Amino acid sequence: MHTMPRDVKMTSKPGLGGAPHLAGQLELLDGTQARDPNRARKFDLLGKLEDDRIAPYLRYIACGLCMPAPIAVDLDVSSVCNFNCPGCVDGISLNRGLIPADRLKALILELAESGVKAINFVGGGEPTTHSGLPECIQRADYCGLVTALVTNGSRLHKNLEVYAESVSSWLRVSVDAATARTHATVHGVDETYFPTIIDSLEILAGIKRAHLGYSFVVFPTGPRANYHEIADAARMAKDTGCDYFEPKVAVHPPTKQILPVPTRVIEVIREQVARARELDDAAFRTVAPPSLLRLATGQAQSQKKTYPVCLAQELRTTITPSGLYACTYRRGENRWCYGSLEEGSFQTLWRGPRRRQVKDQLFPERDCRHFCCRHQQNRYLHQLSAGTLVGADAAKLAAPPAVDDVWYP
């Protein structure tokens, strides 16, 4: 692995080569790419685990071992947000500070040295409110880590070139509207933000390295209702040069349960998504997560989980200013926190007893009654661990990891 010495200063822009042997690792865990073209229209997280590049890591789980490091990290560099979205899904973790710049620089090196392959710079808050974010992404890219960014887009224009050159996997902007008026209502901001965001998308489309996405949380009722703009937003995404459009369901902040949707609204959502998909071509597609597909087909939103532990925790973790958490659904909840960056290095915390305790105590059937996007991955991983996976996937995962790479907890 190639890493940057701790005393190196970023005095020039890193090359655009990144790490070809790792390209796509983050897409594999987030469903923005699909190995099988026939699955490309779905947010296919299960298909990612079937990719040959992930197989070496899954052998740890097949052998009942803990991963030496997660494949990907969701990194909240800041819990500060410049928007004021009513009922923010991450409200519990907002305004709890940011990761100090020096600690953030050291953390990137710790992640690379520990074996992490990819970082998703995301929120708790809005990541671009952290003044050190551009250099942090550059540093991660320089270290050979695959990088992604999720943002509300309002501050992209301040560092467009850096994001275009150093975000290597995907860059997703949470727009949630097709008009300035709806955007202002959904996000609790002035209408002037919307054209600035669209302008940034258009510029990025011409110079970006990563897949560029336009995200749209569908609010079915109340003042923020925006479901009638899905198709128009997809058209705007395509016209601005985005690679994909991602409509998704809204959830109730405390419980993470999908908001109930009236039958008449479901019909409109179905029609709107169908119109959005008519825009699909070789350069653009609409990506729908399983929760939205279930909603559009009138299926129940409950998700029965019968496995005793969440094995997906081994593949990725969440780091925030307030601590390290089992997953993004649990950020800000002390019960599922396994340490703080003030307590030690990432590798020390990841391999420490508190993380193992959190993993063992989290009982999905009891604690994860929400619609979890990792559910199908967990079912696959438990089949793998139990030896009940059959076919080609079972054969290629049968060999144990190299002894030198194994961490025995």
Whole-angstrom Rg: 20 Å
Tell me, briefly, the overall form. globular
Strand count, sense and closure of the main sheet?
A: 9 strands, mixed
Determine the number of helices (DSSP H or I, runs of at least 4 residues): 16
Query: What is the averaged pLDDT score?
Result: 83
Indicate the structural class. Answer: alpha/beta
What distance lies between the first and last C-alpha atoms, to the nearest angstrom? 24 Å
Percent helix, as a range, is: 25-40%
Please tally the β strands and state the result: 9
Low-confidence region ranges: 1-29, 31-43, 395-409
Q: Give the percentage of residues in beta strands.
A: 5-15%
How do the SSEs run, as a string of H and E?
HHHEHEHEHEHHEHEHEHEEHHHHH
Order of adjacent strands in the largest pleated sheet: 7-6-5-4-3-2-1-8-9
Give an overview in words:
- This protein has 409 residues and is α/β, with parallel strands linked by helices.
- It contains 16 helices and nine strands.
- The protein has a nine-stranded mixed beta sheet with strand order 7-6-5-4-3-2-1-8-9.
- The chain is globular and about 50 Å long.
- It starts with 24 loop residues before the first helix and ends in a 13-residue tail after the last helix.
- 47% of the residues are buried.
